[in-house]
C-alpha cells in the first residue's frame, strides 16, 4: 500500500507516523508549510506537489478539519487530482450527509470511498489504539483493513457510508455533555469549599463516574488548557454537525443548542485552539475582583 496522507495536523501527523512505523509507505502533504516542515523533521517523507503525491499513491487518507477543507483539497477548481482506482479513506469528523456526498463524488471520479472516523486522540494514534468506526461497503472495508488494523485494536465496520459518521457524532456529543456536566458539579464543589479529592473519591465509586473526568480534572484545577489534543473549535464544529443530524431525526435541540452556544462563546473568547475542557472556565467564570 502506498499511502498519501492529506492533512498533517494534530491527528494527521501521528497517524502517518504510526503507519510508517508499521511498515507502510507513507507520503504526507499539508496545505500550510509549517506543518509540512514539522512532519519532515519528525521523519515523515513529505511532498509539496499534491497531484504528484496522489499519482504515486493507491490510498489517500484524509485527516482534514472538515468537509469544506476536504472539498478544497480534493476538488479545488483548476487542479485535477488523479483519483481513479484509489481508495479514499476519510478519517476526519464530518456529517453523514457530507460523507455521502463525498462518497458520490469520489465514485464519480472512479475512486473507492470508506469513512473511518476515530475515537481517541494523539496518544492513541501513536500507540495504534484508536477506536476505528468504518462506514462503507464490504469490499472497501476489506481493502482498508490492514491499514485500519495498524491504527486501532479492533476496527469495526458499523454500517454503510454515513452511519459511522453518525456514530462518531453520537460519541462526540458525549464529550460536550460529560465535560459540561462535570464542570457544573466541580464548580459547585469548589465554590462551596468542599474537598475536591473527597468529591472525586465518591464520584469514582458511583455509577455517575466517567474516566474523562479524571483525564480533565488536572487541567480544570490548574486552569491550564494549553497543549490541546482536541481543540475547542473542533468540538464546536462537531456539535453543529450533531445538531444538524439530530434535527433531521426529531431529537430535541435544547441541550445540544446550549452546548453549542457555550462553545461558541468560548471560541469568541479566544479559546478555539485550547483544550475543549476550557469549557470549565465558561461555566465557572472567575468572580469579579
Ligand atoms: P487540526 O490539527 O486542526 O488539523 C487540521 C488539518 O486540516 C490541517 O492539516 C489543516 O491544514 C487542514 N485544513 C484545514 N482547512 C483546510 C483547507 N481549507 N484546505 C486544506 N487543508 C485544510 O485538526 P486535527 O485535530 O488533526 O483533526 C482533523 C480531523 O479529525 C477533524 O475533523 C477532527 O474533528 C477529527 N478528529 C480529531 C481528533 C483529535 O483528537 N485531534 C480526534 C478524532 C477526530 P493547515 O495546517 O494548512 O491549516
Outline the structure in words.
The chain is α/β, with parallel strands linked by helices and 289 residues long. The chain has 2 domains: 2-161, 3-Layer(aba) Sandwich (Rossmann fold), CATH 3.40.50; 165-283, N-(1-d-carboxylethyl)-l-norvaline Dehydrogenase, domain 2 (Orthogonal Bundle), CATH 1.10.1040.10. The protein is 53% helix and 12% strand. The protein has 13 helices and 9 strands. It has helices at 12-21, 33-41, 50-55, 67-74, 96-108, 122-127, 138-151, 163-191, 196-204, 211-222, 232-248, 254-268, 279-283; strands spanning 2-6, 25-29, 45-46, 59-62, 87-90, 112-115, 118-119, 131-135, 156-159. The strands form 2 sheets. It has a 6-stranded parallel sheet, sandwiched between helices. The protein has a 3-stranded mixed sheet with strand order 7-8-9, sandwiched between helices. The N and C termini lie far apart (60 Å). The protein binds NADP nicotinamide-adenine-dinucleotide phosphate (NAP). NADP nicotinamide-adenine-dinucleotide phosphate is lined by residues 7-12, 30-32, 35, 63-66, 69, 72-73, 92-93, 118, 121, 229-230, 234.
Amino acid at each position: 500500500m502506498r499511502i498519501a496522507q492529506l492533512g498533517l495536523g494534530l491527528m494527521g501527523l501521528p497517524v502517518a507516523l504510526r503507519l510508517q512505523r508499521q511498515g507502510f509507505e507513507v507520503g504526507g502533504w499539508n496545505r500550510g508549510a509549517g506543518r509540512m516542515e514539522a512532519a519532515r523533521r519528525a521523519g515523515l517523507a513529505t511532498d509539496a506537489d499534491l497531484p504528484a503525491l496522489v499519482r504515486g499513491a493507491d490510498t489517500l487518507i484524509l485527516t482534514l478539519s472538515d468537509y469544506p477543507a476536504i472539498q478544497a483539497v480534493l476538488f479545488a477548481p483548476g487542479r485535477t487530482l488523479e483519483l481513479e482506482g484509489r481508495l479514499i479513506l476519510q478519517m476526519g469528523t464530518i456529517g453523514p450527509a457530507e460523507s455521502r456526498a463525498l462518497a458520490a463524488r469520489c465514485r464519480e471520479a472512479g475512486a473507492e470511498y470508506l469513512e473511518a472516523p476515530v475515537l481517541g486522540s494523539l496518544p492513541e494514534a501513536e500507540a495504534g489504539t484508536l477506536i476505528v468506526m468504518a462506514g462503507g461497503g464490504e469490499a472497501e472495508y476489506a481493502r482498508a483493513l490492514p491499514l485500519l488494523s495498524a491504527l486501532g485494536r479492533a476496527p469495526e465496520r458499523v454500517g454503510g457510508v454515513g452511519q459511522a459518521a453518525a456514530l462518531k457524532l453520537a460519541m462526540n456529543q458525549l464529550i460536550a455533555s460529560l465535560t459540561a456536566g462535570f464542570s457544573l458539579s466541580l464548580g459547585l464543589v469548589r465554590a462551596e469549599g468542599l474537598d475536591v479529592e473527597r468529591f472525586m473519591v465518591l464520584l469514582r465509586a458511583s455509577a455517575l463516574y466517567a474516566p474523562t473526568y479524571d483525564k480533565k480534572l488536572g487541567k480544570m484545577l490548574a486552569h491550564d488548557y494549553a497543549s490541546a489534543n482536541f481543540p475547542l473549535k473542533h468540538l464546536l464544529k462537531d456539535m453543529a454537525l450533531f445538531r444538524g443530524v439530530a434535527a433531521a431525526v426529531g431529537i430535541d435541540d435544547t441541550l445540544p443548542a446550549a452546548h453549542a452556544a457555550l462553545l461558541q462563546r468560548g471560541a469568541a473568547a479566544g479559546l478555539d485552539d485550547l483544550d475543549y475542557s476550557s469549557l470549565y472556565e465558561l461555566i465557572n467564570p472567575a468572580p469579579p475582583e
